[in-house]
Amino acid sequence: LRNHKRNPRHLPCPPGPKGWPWIGILFQLPQKQVWLAHNQWSKSYGDMIFYSVMGTNFLVLNSNKRTNDLLEDRSANYSDRIRMPMLVELMNWRYNFAFMRYGPVWRKHRKAFHEHFNPSVIGKYDQIQLVHIRRFLGQLLHSPQNFLHHINFVFAAIIMDAVYGVQIEDSDKDPHVDTIAAALGGLAKAGVPGSYLVDHIPILKYYPGWLPGGGFQKDGAEGREATERYAVQTFNQVKEALRSGTARPSVVGSLIENFTGGHGDVSSQAEANMIAKNVGAIAYVAGADTTASAVQAFFLAMAMHPEIQKKAQAEIDSVIGPGRLPEFSDKPLLPYIDAVLKETMRWHTVVPFGVAHMSTEDDEYDGYFIPGGTVVMGNSWSILNDPAVFENPSAFNPDRYFKNPNLRHPHEAAFGYGRRICPGRFFSDHNLFAITSSVLSVFDILPAIDDKGNTIPLKYEPTSGFIS
Ligand code: HEM
């Protein structure tokens, strides 16, 4: 950028592929597993890669040092989010504070969320988690071939219970299950910025749907309807239950009820209700598929590594014995289980390319100029597979944390960065402990066998999406 006022020392932007005027490197962008391609690119350009696509600047950070320097130490400038016209404006995902621009409205939501998910309060969900996880063990026993479905369902059930006090049924006929599926369908279509032309040219959002090329407006309208149903319907159900005195304890109920007048950040009951509605709606979207992905990876790792599974089971047997299932109070006594969980979060990066941050102001860093409005990605996969830190990174090896007790905790990249770091990580950790220790205490996880009785070999093949 040669503008003298903005870049008085005429510093270069960080290195990266160049591409064409305005469209930039649009046609060089990898279509699949973008994190791997950027990891490769870092061999030519270094651990910071800068480029532009259709007028937007991107900066990809491929090392822990870079994410620490920018997303943590300078987080005041690197915590904004990118404008997403299709998802947020047309499909009306405004309620979701993960996509909110950095500022006071986002802060109020984050604070309300944190009140209910910080480490000192998440113990209040222990009972809910254990009840649903024990039901899950029964489902596994009954139909182990449907284990992927059971994994998805148990997190849906835990979150809906904790957040709304609502019990969902394991059936397509459950009205919540159906509504959630429709809303998530919109997210899958529009969640990756740039999926629609209107993301690049926001003025198109006013383009009439009946003109040629206006088909995206139909997707927008369908998404909007599904989002509205999803965010409002269950919230109204909680309000109604509060009115009639039948409400079970829940995050949303407590956010509605505990508004105590106009002091503090939230100024009216209407605003408190809006925040309660939004916090409720995000917990499911942000928490269910992510945690389920980690548990699927755990099942795969156990089936691929029977010796590690046996070691974990031996620890549970010696600490807890055969007479009961693990409880949260057992957690500090199970260091090997803890190492298995850490390694699961490292080996399979659930959100491998992170969630896009955006810089607010122009910045100078390490001899480079980074323009305000640059989209900044932390390549979590690169960080968690850095061979200089994690020896032989593609191997699933919980023992690495005993060999080097100071080894970096995978949570540092797996849950994102700085002021936007995942505020559900303590709850998620709790869920993961409960489910993995319970499963290992009563089941063996083995590879499937084919019709002839032969073991089907297993391979780790992560999918490509935003959540892998
Ligand atoms: C294995 C499980 C999970 C993983 C891997 C995960 C990962 C992430 C990541 C990478 C981000 C983006 C952070 C950034 O912008 O740098 C994020 C944000 C978020 N997560 Fe999670 N998450 C998990 C579970 C959960 C759960 C269970 C909840 C809720 C109960 C949750 C709620 C949120 C929220 C609300 C945000 C948005 C934060 C903001 O923009 O300020 N997550 N998560």
Automatic annotation (TrEMBL):
Binding site for heme: C422
Cofactor names: heme
Pathway in which this enzyme or protein is active: Secondary metabolite biosynthesis
MF terms (GO), sorted A to Z: heme binding; iron ion binding; monooxygenase activity; oxidoreductase activity, acting on paired donors, with incorporation or reduction of molecular oxygen
Record has Transit peptide as a keyword: no
Gene3D superfamilies according to UniProt: Cytochrome P450 (1.10.630.10)
InterPro entries in alphabetical order: Cyt_P450, Cyt_P450_CS, Cyt_P450_E_grp-I, Cyt_P450_sf, Cytochrome_P450_fung
Pfam families linked to this entry: p450
Keywords annotated in UniProt: Heme, Iron, Metal-binding, Monooxygenase, Oxidoreductase, Signal
Protein family per UniProt: Belongs to the cytochrome P450 family.
Family annotation (PANTHER family): P450, PUTATIVE (EUROFUNG)-RELATED, P450, PUTATIVE (EUROFUNG)-RELATED-RELATED
Name of the protein in its database record: Cytochrome P450
Organism: Panaeolus cyanescens
